[in-house]
Amino acid sequence: MEENLLNILPAIAVRGIIPIPNNEFRIEVGRDISLKALEVAEKKFNNDIILLVQKNPLDIEITDNDVEMVGVIAKITLKLKMPNNNYKVKFKVIERINVVKFETLKPYFMVEYSEFKTIHDNIEDELALLRFVMTEVTANAQTVLNTPEEVQRVVQSGVTSEVVCDVISFYLKSSINKYKYLSEQIFTKRLNYILEDVNHEKQIAEIENKINADVKKSIDESQKEYYLREKMKAIQNELGDKARHDEEIEKLR
């Protein structure tokens, strides 16, 4: 990202996803206010844009009161026009920022921002927590992550602890207040959030497994009862046929 001396960039609000640094994602952009911001970012700001988190994803018309005040700077890396005239856009998320104020709201958001600083309060605690996080996530990858292979690839590439935390939190299946991973300044708290969400997903998986086991048991018992009923019918029919056969033999005598 080129240095922006004025700390001002066009911005769009995103819905249904929390943009976390050190990750890439694609979304469909269709609101006029967002399309104008994309165009300005491409023409005047070297594809740099601010992504803001919309508080209520169901809102269509939004103002500065409808977005969170911690966002990210992202790079537009791909933009494809769709048949419905919306655009499929790929973003590479660079860094967190604090919104200072909105310079303009129409025809698109223009935001003044300041640096967001991550606080590293205790390095030893961070290392211990990070090891615990890695152990838990690795042991339960299929249960707690949406794309375990991507997380494994990034982690094995020798990145920093912040990158590891950002990537894991982005790919966590848990959707409980993911904004906390974006807005939390204290790094150890982010790591603890991961452990809490991993534990939550494990509990959900246990409940789902129990439900599946109970359903399977119920189905197996129903199938067993059906088999026994059909077997009894077959035996009764066989006995009935034998009785009729014996009667015919008796008549012939």
Structural key phrases:
alpha+beta; single chain; 253 residues
List the helices and strands and how they pair.
Elements: E1 8-14, E2 24-29, H1 32-44, E3 48-53, E4 70-81, E5 87-104, E6 109-115, H2 123-139, H3 141-144, H4 148-155, H5 161-171, H6 179-183, H7 187-252
Parallel strand pairs: 1-3
Antiparallel strand pairs: 1-6, 2-5, 3-4, 4-5, 5-6
Helix pairs in contact: 2-7, 4-5, 5-7
Mean pLDDT: 88
Helix and strand content put the structural class at alpha+beta
**Percent range for β-strand residues:** 15-25%
Profile the largest sheet: 5 strands, mixed, barrel
Distance between the termini: 106 Å
**N-to-C series of helices and strands:** EEHEEEEHHHHHH
Binned, the helix content reads 40-55%
As residue ranges, the low-confidence spans are: none
Gross morphology:
elongated
- Per DSSP, the total helix count is 7
Task: Please provide the count of β strands.
Answer: 6
As a whole number of angstroms, the C-alpha radius of gyration is: 29 Å
Q: In order across it, which strands form the biggest sheet? A: 1-3-4-5-6
Description:
The chain is α+β, with helices and mostly antiparallel strands and 253 residues long. It contains seven helices and six strands, in the order ββαββββαααααα. The chain has a five-stranded mixed barrel with strand order 1-3-4-5-6. Helix 5 packs parallel to helix 7. The model has no long low-confidence stretch (mean pLDDT 88).
